[in-house]
Design goal:
The chain is of the alpha/beta class. The chain is 43% helix and 15% strand. It folds into 2 domains: 220 residues, Spore Coat Polysaccharide Biosynthesis Protein SpsA, Chain A; 101 residues, no CATH class.
Length: 342
């Protein structure tokens, strides 16, 4: 039986791909049971040719897929979700890598507890790590704020813990394939053509889960690249960032989880972080385009916050004060009320 599918989307990562896949191959269980799907999204470098070479190095261990045309990260992941056969899914970006013991650690948790979702920590991976990076704790970043090392059946607690850290990336959240449903339109898939796709999708996945297990050990090395797709902000990126939590807010309407104070604060806090991240670029004139007008765009960002957050700006500011989060309150109010230069 295939208990795990590891999904690796590939686009112009020839420089990093071998190291990524080697980190997987080196720890595959001898008894099998792990499917490794690698999909080329029509790379323009030598990624596809390298994939073919690596499949010959590890015969029968890699399952290669290729899109007919470049369709983006979300579409690549969606294609692999549809092709996966494992009970659990692990999304792994092709410029990152698995740390030693990751698959064995996951297997032990699955065998003993069989949770719907397993969360793991990560470390930031830099080619030139400096002292300041170590002081920031990049060697071990938490992906979850909540109970660790045990099975928990509390959907609201799962969502709150994910949202409070803001680490909503797909590769630190391993999930049952059953949570994603079928490809007939009723299942959960990543939004094609949108930025911040993880922020829009992973909370919705968590909302379908009945149980989770948080393992506070780094299982993934996240490569920090200066030329990533989000290194520069544009108007579409700013709008997608501020609107990423709207599907979750809509899905939570009328559900008992939304009455949990911890979840209400966490969702409002993450909506505020998304607003601040986008508003900073708008007000400082750092967008790579000029449409719409900055003042119009800023108001749209504020509207998205109000629609996503269960707390009003005033309620969130008071919540920050009660917890002594003075700097967070100051930053949020500054950028919420900021007006871009004409």
């Amino acid at each position: 039986m295939t208990w795990l599918s590891i999904l690796v989307p590939v686009y112009n990562v020839e420089r990093y791909l071998e190291e990524c896949l080697s980190s997987v191959m080196e720890q595959l269980p001898a008894e099998g049971g792990v499917q490794v799907l690698v999909l080329d999204d029509r790379s323009t470098d030598g990624s596809w040719q390298l994939m073919q070479q690596l499949s010959q190095r590890w015969p029968g261990r890699l399952q290669l897929l290729r899109h007919e045309r470049n369709s983006g990260l979300s579409a690549a992941r969606n294609t692999m979700v549809d092709a996966a056969t494992g009970d659990y899914l692990w999304f792994l970006d092709s410029d990152d890598k698995l740390l030693p013991g990751a698959i064995a650690g996951l297997q032990a948790i699955v065998v003993q507890h069989a949770p719907d979702v397993v969360l793991c920590d990560f470390r930031v991976w830099r080619e030139r790590a400096r002292l300041k990076h170590r002081l920031r704790g990049e060697g071990h970043r938490r992906s979850f704020d909540g109970p660790a090392g045990r099975l928990v059946r509390d959907r609201g607690r799962l969502l709150a813990g994910m949202l409070m850290t803001g680490e909503l990336h797909a590769w630190s959240k391993l999930s049952r394939r059953a949570l994603w449903g079928s490809a007939d339109g009723s299942g959960l898939r990543f939004p094609v053509g949108r930025y911040f796709e993880d922020m829009a999708t992973m909370p919705l996945m968590a909302l379908r889960a009945d149980s989770f297990f948080y393992e506070p050990r780094p299982w993934v090395a996240y490569r920090q690249r200066g030329n990533s797709i989000l290194a520069t902000m544009t108007t579409p990126k700013a709008l997608d960032q501020s609107a990423a939590l709207l599907p979750l807010a809509q899905a939570l309407q009328g559900r008992p989880e939304l009455q949990q104070p911890g979840l209400r604060l966490a969702l409002a806090h993450q909506a505020a972080r998304a607003l601040v991240g986008a508003m900073r670029h708008v007000c400082q004139g750092k967008l790579g385009d000029a449409q719409p007008q900055p003042s119009v765009l800023a108001e749209r960002l504020r509207q998205n916050f109000r629609a996503a957050s269960p707390l009003s700006p005033e309620e969130l500011a008071r919540a920050y004060l009660r917890r002594g989060w003075w700097l967070r309150r100051r930053k949020f109010l500054r950028w919420f009320h900021a007006m871009p230069a004409a």
